[in-house]
Amino acid sequence: MGNRSGTVYKDIDKCIDDIIRKIGKKVVCALPFALGKPNQFINRLYQRAKDDSEIELKILTALTVEVPSAKNGLNRRLTEPFAKRIFGDFPSFEYMLDLRKEELPSNVFLYEFYTKAGGFLKSDHVQQNYISSNYTHIPRDMINMGLNLSAQLMTKKNINGKTLYSASSNADTTIELERRLKAKEAGGHKSVVVGQINNNLPFMYGDAVREAEDFDVIIDNPSYDFKLFAPPKVSVTDVDYMIGLNASVMVQDGGTLQIGIGALGDAIVYGLILRHKHNSVYNSLLNDLKLVENNEKLIADYGDTGVFDKGIYGSTEMLVDGFMRLYKSGIVKRKVYDDINLQKLINEKKIADKVTPSSFTALIDNNVIAKKLTKDNFKYLKKYGIFKDQLKFEDGYIINGSKSIEADFTKEGNLSKVAENCLGKNLKGGVALHGSFFLGPEDFYDSLNNMSEDERKIINMTGVEYVNQLYGNEEIKRLQRTNARFINAGMKLTLSGAVVSDAYYDGLVVSGVGGQYNFVTMAHALEDARGILMIKTTRKKNNVTKSNVVFNYGHITIPRHLRDIIVTEYGIADLKGRSDKEVIAAILNITDSRFQENLLKQAKNARKIPSNYCIPDRFKNNYPETITNTLKPYKKEKLFPLFPFGSALTREELVIASSLKQFKAKMKIERTSYAEMKTAYATIPAKAYPYLERMELEKAASVKEDVLQKMLIHALSLAGHL
To answer: Do residues 336 and 453 touch, judged by C-beta distance below 8 A?
Structure first.
């Protein structure tokens, strides 16, 4: 891209002075999704707008991360210590602190394309300024909103004597944004591209690698380094595990995978690792669940239950830490290449990862290289590891030390000489993972930083324009994304197969569309791909269980005509290309049995299924206790733990957090007075002391602390920990 000044600043305020001098006081600033925001830069810019009402600041972004906090009581005592321990010196975003207090100044506007799930249901500003857009359309929309400032966090590295930069966690939209800004600048538009260095970011390769000339401004001062935002792992419930296990049978060896963050993503990863490392146990569990029996043709045609010999390739907007676990487990290992001819020959099994004489002849036979080798052909062969690195090409001859081989393969004997002296061992330049952004726990960042350079280069951090869609370089994408499984989560499912993922029936925004629609449509556009949406069949509201499977709903994210595969904790429903009555029957089979008959009645009343239709008996035992009983013997063998990949929280913190959650739900139904708790726990149970010590309540120094002490003991008792 290049052609920018790449001016280095040590001081953010001086940098902002110069930016405003160039673009004026109407600032439309784009910040990346989640981790890649330059905290100190945007905080100082925001403060400048607060101090100067003539500045109009529009912040265009998605998912501004926040350090967890609590105002008072037990929640504050629980939250503050672990927040300090986990998030350290991470600078909070000042505009978010003011937003939470409803104190954003009138000259500042926050536009988010994706928000923390359920975090802003009561925020008028967020609800009114949310922009609903596919992830791939965000750069276009930002430009159309008058974008004149793009700022992101990045890192640097000296490579062969030259300082290079990496977009690291966020190549998602910034690369396309800068390209679009440059095109607008040709017409006189004034804009600035800013990169702020944080040396804690892993240096990621691929399209994320940049040069100084790709930026107008580089803020480089070690005093601005801060600890990366690292959300702790969430627990994985039995329901999560069942959904992940059901989804895992749809991932084919040699295929392509996309998954997201959270408990369901972890559950899929756990299921795939179980399948690969403990295949007999995995298949025994599938047999107990009758999963293959109930989906025999679907799994035979599109699924797999064996180990991963060929491995899978990851093509995912979010590089979750689970992909690193799949890589370390030997599952993510199928490499793809950026050359159409090479990838085509690999798909046709004419070339494999190990270089052989047949690899070389396949390139000649398929006219990828000439029989009389050219200089460009020679560079191509070295680039992809087919020829050794030390070889040279001079005047039509391949030079290997003292040996010289004529590069004319129309002449007898030259091919065998090349096979004997010139071939490399394995193909080079392959990519096992294409990702656009990442966010995860601290050990995930550590694992990226601790990878060797060669290992890290198999990850190509690139834009969502590459990962989330087919158009643009379509031929190579189709060749790479064989047997793709794009797996995402939704909130609700209608009996017609439509999925609700981002908002409530009245349009109240829960999170955002993100890339879900992109992946669903791409699954339909690829011949052997499947789009899989995961739904938990029930939820609890005010301690009342409600169905997430509904007859219809006032808002949808994925329309019924794009229905494909639905996975719940009770099984798999293949909806693609099926009639409405078949879709309804399939969905009812994987719905919680407490709600099946009422939903069936609604479908019959609407004449969408025959009036004499009955749900098969084998699908009428879809109850939570069925799942619990099925998993029980496997849990005795230490499988399916609450935190399969560890937790940054201590055991005491986990127990307290779950106890307080149950206590809150219980108190909505049946309140217990302080007097009753004081009487019940006049003597503190010995088992309560580790938890009281963690909350600094082992000795109550006031009536207020005594109230908190007794509440905590009562919560622990209700949860069965005393």
So the answer is: no
Are 7-224 and 238-335+432-619 in the same CATH fold? yes
- CA 646 from centroid of its chain's CA atoms: 18
Instruction: Please tell me the distance from the alpha carbon of residue 582 to that of residue 575, in angstroms, as a whole number.
Output: 8
Supply φ then ψ for residue 386, to 5 degrees.
-75, -35
| Residue-range domain boundaries for the chain | 7-224, 238-335+432-619, 340-421, 651-718
Alpha helices in 526-650, H assignment, sequence order? 580-589, 593-605, 624-636
The per-residue pLDDT for range 578-633, each reduced to its tens digit, is 999 999 999 999 999 999 999 999 999 999 999 999 999 999 999 999 999 999 99
Exposed, middle or buried, 507 (CB in 10 Å: 0-12/13-18/19+)?
A: exposed
Could you say which architecture CATH assigns to the domain 238-335+432-619?
3-Layer(aba) Sandwich (3.40)
Task: Give this prediction's pTM.
Answer: 0.95
Q: Which residues pair with 545 in a beta bridge?
A: 540
Residues 540, 592 contacting (CB under 8 angstroms): no
519: three-class secondary structure by DSSP = helix
Helix (H, G, I), strand (E, B) or coil at 460: strand
Q: Where are the beta strands (DSSP E) in 472-617?
A: 484-489, 492-494, 499-500, 530-534, 538-541, 544-547, 549-550, 565-568, 571-574
CB atoms inside a 10 Å sphere around CB 638: 7
Per-residue pLDDT tens over the stretch 495-521? 999 999 999 999 999 999 999 999 999
Q: Which of 222, 246, 195 is nearest to 38 (CA)?
A: 195
CA dist 165 and 207 (Å) reads: 11
Contact 150, 177 (CB under 8 A): yes
587: its two tokens: 């969905």
* Beta-strand pair 499-500/459-461: unpaired
Distance CA(701)–CA(10), nearest Å, equals: 49
The contacts found for 327-330 with CB under 8 angstroms, 24 or more apart, are: 327/432, 327/433, 328/447, 329/272, 329/273, 329/276, 329/277, 330/276
What CA–CA distance (Å, rounded) separates 193 from 181? 9
- Residue 412 contacts by C-beta under 8 Å, 6 or more apart in sequence? none
Helical axes 580-589 vs 593-605, angle rounded to 10°: 160
Chain centroid to CA 347: how far? Answer: 27
CATH number of 7-224: 3.40.1080.10
Judge whether residue 384 has pLDDT over 60. yes
Of 172, 181, 124, nearest in space to 152 by CA: 172
Residue 704 reports pLDDT greater than 90: yes
Q: How far is the first Cα of the chain from the last one, in angstroms, to the nearest whole number?
A: 63
Question: Is a pLDDT exceeding 90 seen at residue 546?
Answer: yes
